[in-house]
Specification:
76 residues; mainly alpha; 4 helices; 79% helix; elongated
Amino acid sequence: MTLTTGNEGEITKKIENQTSKVPSTLFLGAALLSMGISAALKCMMHDKTALFVGQWVAPFLLLGIYNKIVKTEGHD
C-alpha cells in the first residue's frame, strides 16, 4: 500500500486527533515510572533489564512533548 500526499495528511490528522485526547501527565508519569522501575532493577542486580527499561524514559518524554505541541498548536 502506497501513501499519497493527500492520504498521508488524512492519516496524520486522525493520529493527531486521537493523540490530543491523551493527558500530557500520562507521559510524564510513564517516564517517572520507568526511572523508578529501572532503579529498582539495578538495585536487584538485573543490570541489562534495568538499562533496557531506563531507555524508555526518553521516548516517553518525547511523546509527551509531541502531545503538548499537538494540543497547543493544533494540527493542519
